[in-house]
Amino acid sequence: MKKYSQLLLLIPFIGMCVLLPAANRIEPYILGLPFLLFWIAVWMILSSVILFIVYKLDPANEGSEVE
Predict the structure, then answer these.
(1) CB 39 within 8 A of CB 23
(2) Is the peptide bond before 34 cis (omega within 30 degrees of 0)?
(3) CA distance linking residue 63 with residue 40, whole number of Å
(4) How far apart, in whole angstroms, are the C-alpha atoms of residue 44 and residue 53?
(5) Can you give the pLDDT of all 67 residues of the chain as single tens digits?
(6) What burial letters (b/e) apply to 31-47, b meaning 16+ CB within 10 Å?
(7) pTM for the whole thing?
(8) Are 11 and 19 spatial neighbours (Cβ–Cβ below 8 Å)?
C-alpha cells in the first residue's frame, strides 16, 4: 500500500509542473480569476487533499493520536 500512496504524490507534481504550460492563458475567466490563477489555486487545494489521503494511508500513522 505504501507504493501506491507514494504514486499519489506524483499527481500534484504533474498538475503543477507538467501541465502548467498547457494552462498558461488568461482567457477564460473562472470565478473572476484568470485561468492560470484558477488552475494554480485548484491544484493547491487538490494537493492538500492528496497529502491528507497519503497521510491516512500511511501505516506508520496508525495509533499515533494523542489523547
Answers:
(1) yes
(2) no
(3) 34
(4) 14
(5) 567 777 888 888 888 888 888 888 778 888 988 988 999 999 999 999 999 988 888 777 776 566 5
(6) eeeeeeebbeeebeeeb
(7) 0.76
(8) no
